[in-house]
């Protein structure tokens, strides 16, 4: 027991052991914390690595910025990540990318960010700003980080940040220095990728421009090779460097035969023929100016051809003359066509001289005119008489037609009209015979717009005019026949009406004598109705015939009196009695066609009575007349059966009857429409089924 420890020693060892255990636990916790930090750093590294892997594959800024905001939320473990691409010129074209909030929250966040961050335009790539919570209770941002406004090119600035909203703030830690450093490093990586993407896009644009330039060169080369015009490229001394296939085809010379030679040495024809063209060409080439000439060349085969040549000098960026480019076109066929046209004109002159068409050409400056043979023949003269053609022409115009004819010609001479086609008479200078002329006058204007030449044609249409006069005479005879036919229609209708009226009288007498014979009365009523319809038809035919063949008559009459007479004629047709009302605005006397207006009133008022609503106790017909400013306006309103909407557009058609209760022929409203057209007026109809109809009639009046 001598070696056993005392209580104090044991207690001391126990305390030392406890201290060692405590130290071991602290070291163990530090190791655990270190392991957690390493795990967190490793996870952060993995996330950054994933971001870098995805960022490398991004080919445009929009796709990349969307990746950035997603990575901010993932890597930095915040609620919301944003990237604001700011247009330096207009905020309307700025774009903001969000991750971690809905559209409504994103709009509020954007406004708060603009208010807090974009107040200063200071540029600092390394500085990171802490977003402070807004004191306004309506603000939704609690905390966050953002970069300063960073310029990425001459069009856009960039703003990158992370934020936590107030509603989620307790779930996220406070912002530390470590967090700020991590955010700053991430921003630098983002800027590096943005720079790379912009460089790549710029390179792609350059490649596209190069590709487009190469394509353009290929097109130009193809055009130069395949164009039908000959192409020649020479050095600055005019020696050939290249020609295309069209040149070889036109001239017969190959590129190998002409390279290093001057075109004039083997293409130009006899100098005496091309003297002016050669001098013009040589002068322009010596001055290194553009030139266009037509020159007669000779092909390798010895065949001559007309060459339309256009030469342009080419200069480098420093203004040094390096090449000539020449385009040549074989226009031999055009020159041949021009010669053929001259021959054709000669043939045309021959044709016109034999067809009797006079052709003249007048120069307003010299006051001299040139005639063809047909002109001399028409005016009973010859070129050998050496008369002044223009004066002879003017003096031959019929005195009654001269002012009008010269006025028409002056409109062409002054440039007011390009041409005039008119008709007039001439008095032949020798025989004194009057001839009718159809003339066409056309002007030609110079560069300044003044008339420099007048040409015309003259055709003798006397025989045609005689024939037209004969037609007029025949037409007058036809009009007389039509008038006689009108009289015939009237006579026939009168002869028909006379016995009909007698029958109606007899029927009345029979009806009085057969008081107890109901069946006979029915028959007689039917006969009377048929006779009445026949009578109405004849009257309507007469109205139509008169309207179509008789001109509108002028007569002053009392319109109020006429309307009252029509009222009185229709009063007995209504049971119960219709309430007739008349309103007159303006004077009672009008100057118009009384018979036609009476026909209109009889038809419109008669229809209002005939198609009254038999199921009401207060039927009415209202007529309002306005006689103002030589215009007669009549409105006829009733509360009768009305016309359905589908029938309203058809009621003025011939033989159309809108109502099942109608016993007429369907000619009445058609005749009214024809009368209104004849008088130059208009008519409108407003109607509603079972409620009534209003006719609006407007007619022009004649001045007193």
Topology summary:
Layout lengths: L6 H51 L3 H15 L4 E8 L7 E5 L3 H15 L10 E4 L9 E7 L2 E2 L4 E10 L11 H50 L3 E6 L4 E4 L1 H7 L3 H4 L5 H4 L7 H12 L4 E8 L5 E12 L5 E10 L1 H24 L2 E6 L4 E4 L1 H6 L10 H8 L2 H15 L5 E9 L6 E12 L5 E10 L1 H52 L4 H32 L5 E4 H13 L7 E8 L2 E4 L1 H17 L9 E9 L2 E8 L6 H4 L19 H11 L3 E7 L3 E9 L4
Parallel strand pairs: 18-20
Antiparallel strand pairs: 1-2, 1-6, 3-4, 4-6, 5-6, 7-8, 7-11, 9-10, 10-11, 12-13, 12-16, 14-15, 15-16, 17-19, 20-21, 21-23, 22-23
Q: Could you explain the architecture of this structure?
A:
By secondary structure, the chain is α+β, with helices and mostly antiparallel strands. It folds into five domains: 58-193, Transcription factor LuxR-like, autoinducer-binding domain (Beta-Lactamase, 2-Layer Sandwich), CATH 3.30.450.80; 227-330, PAS domain (Beta-Lactamase, 2-Layer Sandwich), CATH 3.30.450; 340-456, Beta-Lactamase (2-Layer Sandwich); 461-550, Helix Hairpins, CATH 1.10.287; 552-700, Heat Shock Protein 90, CATH 3.30.565.10. The chain has 18 helices and 23 strands. Strands 1, 2, 3, 4, 5 and 6 form a six-stranded antiparallel sheet that branches. The protein has a five-stranded antiparallel sheet with strand order 8-7-11-10-9, with helices on both faces. The longest helix is centred in the last third of the chain and has 52 residues, at 462-513. The chain is flat and about 175 Å long. Mean pLDDT is 79; it is low at 120-126.
């Amino acid at each position: 027991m001598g070696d056993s420890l005392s209580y104090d020693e044991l207690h001391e060892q126990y305390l030392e052991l406890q201290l060692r255990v405590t130290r071991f636990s602290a070291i163990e916790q530090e190791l655990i914390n270190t392991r957690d930090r390493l795990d967190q750093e490793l996870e952060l590294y993995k996330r950054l690595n994933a971001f870098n892997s995805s960022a490398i594959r991004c080919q445009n800024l929009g796709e990349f910025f969307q990746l950035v905001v997603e990575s901010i939320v993932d890597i930095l473990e915040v609620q919301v990540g944003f990237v604001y691409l700011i247009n330096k010129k207009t905020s309307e074209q700025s774009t903001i990318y969000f991750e971690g909030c809905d559209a409504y929250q994103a709009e509020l966040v954007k406004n708060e960010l603009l208010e807090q961050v974009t107040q200063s335009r200071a540029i600092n790539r390394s500085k990171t700003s802490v977003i402070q919570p807004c004191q306004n209770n309506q603000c939704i941002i609690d905390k966050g980080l953002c970069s300063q406004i960073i310029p990425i090119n001459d069009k856009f600035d960039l703003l990158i940040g992370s934020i936590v909203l107030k509603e989620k703030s307790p779930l996220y830690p406070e912002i530390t220095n470590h967090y700020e450093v991590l955010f700053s490093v991430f921003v630098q990586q983002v800027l590096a990728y943005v720079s790379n993407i912009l460089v790549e896009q710029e390179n792609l644009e350059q490649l596209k421009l190069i590709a487009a330039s190469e394509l353009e060169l290929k097109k130009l080369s193809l055009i130069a090779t395949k164009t039908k015009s000959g192409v020649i490229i020479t050095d600055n001394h005019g020696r050939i460097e290249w020609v295309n296939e069209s040149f070889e085809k036109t001239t017969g010379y190959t590129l190998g035969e002409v390279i290093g030679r001057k075109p004039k040495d083997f293409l130009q024809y006899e100098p005496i023929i091309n003297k002016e063209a050669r001098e013009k060409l040589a002068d322009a080439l010596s001055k290194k100016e553009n030139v266009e000439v037509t020159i007669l060349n000779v092909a390798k085969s010895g065949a001559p051809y007309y060459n339309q040549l256009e030469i342009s000098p080419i200069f480098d960026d420093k203004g040094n003359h390096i090449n000539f480019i020449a385009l040549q076109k074989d226009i031999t066929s055009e020159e041949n066509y021009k010669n053929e046209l001259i021959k054709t004109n000669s043939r045309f002159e021959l044709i016109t001289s034999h067809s009797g068409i006079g052709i003249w050409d007048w120069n307003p400056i010299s006051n001299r005119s040139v005639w063809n043979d047909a002109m001399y023949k028409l005016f009973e003269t010859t070129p050998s008489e050496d008369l002044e053609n223009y004066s002879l022409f003017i003096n031959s115009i019929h005195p009654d037609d001269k002012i009008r004819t010269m006025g028409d010609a002056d409109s062409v001479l002054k440039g007011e009209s390009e041409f005039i086609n008119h008709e007039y008479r001439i008095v032949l200078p020798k025989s004194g015979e009057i001839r009718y002329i159809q003339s066409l006058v056309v002007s030609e204007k110079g560069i300044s717009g003044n008339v420099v030449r007048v040409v015309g044609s003259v055709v003798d249409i006397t025989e045609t005019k005689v024939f037209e006069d004969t037609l007029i005479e025949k037409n007058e005879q036809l009009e007389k026949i039509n008038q006689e036919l009108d009289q015939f229609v009237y006579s026939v209708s009168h002869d028909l009406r006379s016995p009909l009226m007698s029958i109606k009288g007899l029927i009345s007498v029979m009806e009085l004598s057969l008081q107890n014979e109901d069946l006979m009365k029915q028959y007689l009523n039917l006969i009377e109705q048929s006779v009445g319809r026949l009578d109405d038809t004849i009257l309507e035919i007469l109205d139509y015939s008169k309207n179509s063949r008789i001109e509108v008559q002028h007569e002053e009459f009392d319109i109020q009196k006429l309307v009252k007479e029509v009222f009185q004629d229709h009063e007995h047709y209504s049971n119960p009695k219709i309430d007739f009302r008349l309103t007159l605005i303006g004077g009672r006397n009008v100057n118009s066609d009384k018979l036609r207006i009476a026909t209109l009133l009889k038809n419109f008022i008669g229809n209002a009575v005939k198609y009254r609503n038999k199921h009401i106790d207060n039927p009415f017909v209202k007529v309002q007349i306005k006689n103002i400013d030589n215009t007669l306006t009549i409105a006829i309103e009733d509360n009768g059966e009305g016309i359905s909407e589908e029938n309203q557009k058809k009621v003025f058609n011939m033989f159309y009857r809108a109502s099942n209760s109608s016993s007429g022929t369907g000619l009445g409203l058609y005749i009214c429409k024809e009368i209104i057209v004849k008088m130059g007026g208009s008519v409108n109809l407003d109607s509603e089924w079972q409620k009534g109809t209003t006719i609006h009639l407007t007619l022009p009046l004649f001045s007193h």
